[in-house]
Amino acid sequence: MKKVDVEIYTLSDKVSATQEVRVNGVKVRIFGAKSISDGIKIPSHELTNALEKSDADIIHLHGFHSLLPYYVLKARSNLEHKLVMTPHYHGIGHSFLRNILFRFYKPTLRKMANYSNKIISVSSYEKSLILRDFGVDNEKVVIIPNGISFEGINRLYPTQKDKNKILSVGRLEKYKNFDKVIRAMKLLADTHFSLTIIGDGPERSKLLDLIRKLELNNKVFLKSNLTKEELFFEYANSSFFVLPSYYEAYGIAVAEAQSLGLNVIVSNAGALSEFIAGNYAYGITLPVTPEKIAHTIIEASRGVKPIDKYVPYTWDKAVEELMQLYESLI
Fold first, then answer.
1. Over the stretch 14-67, which tens digit does the pLDDT of each residue have?
2. What is the C-alpha separation between 136 and 112, in angstroms, rounded?
3. CATH code for 7-147+315-329?
4. CA 247 → CA 244, 289, 296, distances in Å?
5. 153-302: same fold as 7-147+315-329?
6. For residue 38, what are the CA distances in angstroms to 11, 47, 66, 83, 307?
7. What mean pLDDT, rounded, does the chain reach?
8. pLDDT (0 to 100) of residue 231
9. At 253, which helix (H) or strand (E)?
10. Which residues, in sequence order, are CB contacts of 114 under 8 Å at separation 6+?
């Protein structure tokens, strides 16, 4: 594979001046930003200056649910490059206010989508949303799924699964319905099931309060900031995985769980429905309720239907396809 020089730009509201670090040999420039709400950051003018002075052959922009598309669009008149976008697009904002703001932001995203040379979707579902909402040609949007990153670790950490352990992994956002998974555990209080939720985000304190309120401290555990090895250990010790999210462009935690042999339960919504259609997971019909989650956990524990083995994308495969796309543009 051809060697390329990569430089990453990212934002942080915890730095006042631009910082440079190296991660696995890759230069990462961290620009200061003002956070106006969770997930929405206004970058310093240094980001725009850096973009305008960039001599990159390709700029690869991630995230429609941020202000970065606006700032790249703002700097585009001084750029001579090819633009690749990976939107991670869900179709709507994830709160009432953000959804209203997102409607006003969509014309900017439409300009960016049409200005780009290629758009990478991580699932067929996400591609359908992009084609529906941004009026781009079908040929412009290519599907390259996310990979999984546990290759080799399973040989280093053999473990015995806990047949009663349920795992749920993801950013702690309201739309992911972790609160309903916790309430489902209250309905399963007389069983031997336990639940471990791994993640961080704006709903964390509310979820901890709910665990205390429902007196589930001995059955529900919330963990944050785990290392890759610690996260694998949680997967490897669990028998069930639950993610009843309403919006997912792909569901990388689901792919990780399936690749490690867990019984997976997801909502029949967004890109997660593709796992159900492929017979890789048990499905929860909408609307998601604690009762439906508890019922499906019981079904999965009894093995009421055969589930096909899932063969996940590896990051090596994803990178190979990404490099082919880059080379086709240059």
1. 888 899 999 989 999 999 999 876 667 889 889 989 998 888 899 999 998 888
2. 10
3. 3.40.50.2000
4. 9, 15, 19
5. yes
6. 13, 20, 11, 27, 37
7. 90
8. 92
9. helix 252-259
10. 134, 135, 136
Side-chain half-sphere CA neighbours of 45 within 13 A: 0
- Return the percent helix, strand and coil in the chain, to nearest 5: 40, 20, 40
Token pair of 208 as six digits? 């901890």
Say which CATH superfamily domain 153-302 falls into: Glycogen Phosphorylase B; (3.40.50.2000)
Q: Enter the tokens of residue 200.
A: 């961080």
Q: pLDDT under 50 in the chain at which residues?
A: none
Check residue 100 and give its pLDDT: 81
Task: Report CA Rg, the chain.
Answer: 21
> pLDDT value at position 52?
87
**What is the pTM (predicted TM-score) of this model?**
0.85
The span from the CA of 122 to the CA of 64, in Å, is 13
Domain segments of the chain: what residues? 7-147+315-329, 153-302
Both tokens assigned to 194: 């336990």
HEC sequence for 159-176? CCCCCCEEEEECCCCHHH
Listed residue (113, 145, 105, 111) closest to 130, CA to CA:
113
H or E element that contains 221: strand 220-223
What is the CA angle 100-40-24, rounded to 5?
A: 145
Residue 285 C-beta-side C-alpha neighbours within 13 Å: 1
Is residue 286 within 8 Å of 267, Cβ to Cβ? Answer: yes
Query: How would you classify the pairing of strands 118-121 and 141-143?
Result: parallel
